[in-house]
Amino acid sequence: MDNHEEHKNKKMDHSKMDHSKMNHNKDNHSKMDHSKKEDPKSDDHSKMDHSKMDHGSGDHSGHNPGHGQMGHDHHKMMIADFRKRFWVTLVLTIPILFFSPMIQEFFGYEFLLPGNPYILFALSTIVYFYGGWPFLKGFWSEVKKGAPGMMTLISMAISVAYFYSTATVFGLRGEDFFWELSTLIAIMLLGHWIEMKSVLGASKALQLLVSMMPAEAHRVKGDTIEDIPLEDLLKDDVILVKPGEKVPADGIIVDGSSYLNESMLTGESKPVKKDENDKVIGGSVNGNSTLKVKVEHTGKDSYLNKVITMVEEAQKTKSKMQNLSDRAAKWLTYIALAIGFGTLAVWLILGFPFVYALERMVTVMVIACPHALGLAIPLVVAISTAVSAQNGLLIRNRTAFEESRKISALLFDKTGTLTKGDFGVTRVESVKQEYSTKEILRLSSALEQSSEHPIAVGIIKKVKEDNITIPKPENFNAITGKGVEANVEGKQVKVVSPGYLRDEKITIPEDAYSDAAETVVFVLIDGQLAGYIALADEIRPESAEAIKIFKKNNIKVLMATGDNEKTAKAVSDKLGLDGYYAEVLPHQKVEIVKELESKGEFVAMTGDGVNDAPALAQANVGIAVGSGTDVAAETADIILVNSNPQDIANLILFGKATYNKMIQNLIWATGYNVVAIPLAAGVLYSSGFVLGPAVGAVFMSLSTIIVAINAQLLKRKIGKK
Questions:
Q1: Is 575 exposed, middle or buried (0-12, 13-18, 19+ CB in 10 A)?
Q2: For 246, which DSSP code?
């Protein structure tokens, strides 16, 4: 069915379009043209210099692992490395603890081997250099950046413990801290292993974008067709695109006509009719007709590669805020260094021997790095990610999850996010008593079963859902520009546009149009209007309720869609959004996010298509709908497994609960330092009390247990919807 007046298809020229229209419902839908803003940073991406980022068509063959895959594999290798180091360290820690004189004294037993100190030294040396290597390497990295964090604090504690203890083995008077060194390294390795396992690997977004292009193209050479690798395709080549295939490159149709599915590239919810001289986009999916296309853009100049570049740029410029545990560790490092050297200085000034002052300093600096801090955040993260997943949220970016409590503006893509993404039947109405709605559907389906038109596809889908048997048509005929007709079971049936009814002076029922977002076709039987069928990209039933929750929490809700102005306005009005942007391209979605952020909004972007990927990467929090593309999911920070907008409300509540639990754990993990560090420094020396390392160890153990239990309580907070 090729002709429905209400389905005039867009012929999108992406090099010329300027559709950045924003309409505020509360302001009579006045239009603000964001494209005219003179901002050198938001220049049209068609003018971007891609020479520095070679995303040539050669990459599209799928043989280039450069985009994302190496990072993903590196992440998996790091997890395996931490796991291996943890188990080796744990095995060595057991004999270190057992043969440590301080532990034996604390538990009241004695079991010393000949050369006991040297055995402890040998085992601890392996633990320090093998188990502690990631922290020592991380310390050097933090120092070079001038940003001390967790790695600096851990490295300081284990290095002080190791070198001081080594000195006691080779003549310095004092007790060794080998047991402290090994347990600290083991627990920190465990914490980092848990943390890395709880989040997904590095983004595969760019690799997945590249994989959207086919590996080969069918090039037409005279009367022959040759299959060539995509990288060999040149500008002005003519290629054949068979039904169901992906279009290998941007170009212009020189022969044929078909419907192309561009929904994951442009956001257009319906397949778009393309005729001769119309532009096609590489990566879009051809319908049921063969096309010949003259290649316009290949490699870095293609539409898809401009999207790839935007994702890459947004991911590079995205804020890399230090997480909570790093910020706590930074301050603990400063405090430990200040109090440690202060302790050494004070005891020396008071006239105590250097060895005694040094022991006090070492005790302070070792105690300053709490074991519990290594587990405080990773345990909460592991539990929150697991419980969130059970509630429909997959967390890929921990910092974004922590930050979700700050969201002040939500920007939704429409197709597949607020709506279902399918062009389906919304209403079937009968205006003749002798024909039921089921009969109207049944008879009209006979005319639509062989058509690839979106309306036909929607009607056939509905018929199949209702288990209606499709009858056979006879004398099928297309009514130019108006619809189709055929004889079905002895009746003359027509499925036509409103224009046909106007031409034939047939009155259109008053209630035929209930929603501007709907397209309506009319069914005539034996020349009489029998009923009509309305179709639309249906709004998800959960969308309206979700938007009420957001507004109750003072969060602005906006929509940015590649769909047309009329449809966007109807969806926006129906859901009561704060505003919408219609007919926007991927680079314009990024500009919308940037503009909102520049106004001080903490922006969450929700989408499901390739066209949303750059904006998802740019937003403070990128949320992908699970039913969408892998590309969107890999670019986003958080994935909605059930594609339910209400889960975003849960996300914000989960984020708040998780953040609060992290703060509580940090207080438990570091709170004992407020008491332990001054006591270890010797503030109560005059009263006859100085905190010994063994008692400090009890404090740390207790703190670690409390942190672990408190993290488990998070399940009660967020485990129930």
A1: buried
A2: B
Please choose, from the candidates 572, 542, 574, the residue with its C-alpha nearest in 3D space to the C-alpha of residue 647: 542
Tens digits of residue pLDDT in 566-601: 778 888 988 999 999 987 876 788 999 999 999 999
- Cα–Cα distance, 297 to 546 (Å, whole number): 42
Identify the top-confidence range among 33-42, 476-485, 516-525: 516-525
Q: In whole angstroms, what separates CA 428 from the centre of its chain? A: 38
* Triad 651, 652, 658: Cα angle to 5°: 85
Task: Specify which of 78-82, 96-100, 400-404 reaches the highest per-range mean pLDDT.
Answer: 96-100
Q: What are the tokens at 421?
A: 């993404």
Q: What is the 3 state secondary structure string of 353-392? A: CHHHHHHHHHHHHHHCCCHHHHHHHHHHHHHHHHHHHHCC
Tokens of 419: 């709506």
Give the strand pairing for 579-582 and 556-560. Answer: parallel
Q: Which residues are catalytic?
A: 413
Q: What is the pLDDT of residues 107-154, one digit of tens each?
A: 888 888 888 889 999 999 999 999 999 989 988 888 888 877 778 878
Stated as kind and residue range, the H or E segment containing 424 is strand 419-430
* Residue 94: per-residue pLDDT: 93
How does DSSP assign 434-445, residue by residue? TS-HHHHHHHHH
Give first-to-last CA distance, the chain, whole Å: 46
Q: Which of 186, 175, 155, 189 has its CA nearest to residue 332?
A: 155
Tokens 């085992």 — which residue?
A: 123
